[in-house]
Amino acid sequence: MNDKLLTSSILPVINKKTLWLEENEPVSVAVRILSLGQDFIPVCRDKKIIGQITLSDLNKLTVLPQPKTVLDLYSPTISITQDAEIWQLLKIINGENSKDKLVNFIPVVRDKESKEYVGIIYRSELRDWLNNQEGSNE
């Protein structure tokens, strides 16, 4: 992968057509969305990301008292700012992050201060974009 591609902006790979939930939504809404095949839902407070809900978070539904709102169900998330470059994104999704885990999706925020939710980058869409970019540079 060439240096020009690594220093490219992440903007072209941000998926802005995504669902997100406000923290006060009932848990049933998150369960319904996840049951339709979406494996990640950003959780926001006034359009600012505070966490995420994934399939593994549904395990919390087996404990008492059961979570009633998305706020009771969500878990912390890793995010990236929209001004980041591809090399920074690659490091984060490949495990150089606060969870020390590979991630298949990462929320994008406007900036660190506001944490305003912008969209999601999916690993699969990033891979496709990188393959297309490398193919067009040959």
How does this structure look, described?
With 138 residues, this protein is of the alpha/beta class. Helices cover 28% and strands 20% of the residues. The protein is built from 5 helices and 6 strands, in the order αβαββαβαββα. The chain has helices spanning 3-6, 27-35, 70-73, 86-93, 123-136; strands at residues 21-22, 40-45, 48-54, 80-81, 105-109, 117-122. It has a 3-stranded mixed β-sheet with strand order 1-2-3. It starts with a helix and ends with a helix. 25% of the residues are buried. The model has no long low-confidence stretch (mean pLDDT 93).
What is the general shape? elongated
Portion in beta strands = 15-25%
- The protein's oligomeric status is single chain
Q: Taking strands numbered 1, 2, ... along the chain, how are they ordered across the largest sheet? A: 1-2-3
| Count of DSSP-assigned helices | 5
The Cα radius of gyration reads 16 Å
Low-confidence parts: none
Q: Tell me the total number of β-strands.
A: 6
Kindly name the structural category. Answer: alpha/beta
Q: What's the main sheet like?
A: 3 strands, mixed
Q: State the helicity in percent bands.
A: 25-40%
H/E element string?
HEHEEHEHEEH
What is the mean predicted local confidence, pLDDT?
93
N-to-C terminal Cα separation, in Å? 11 Å
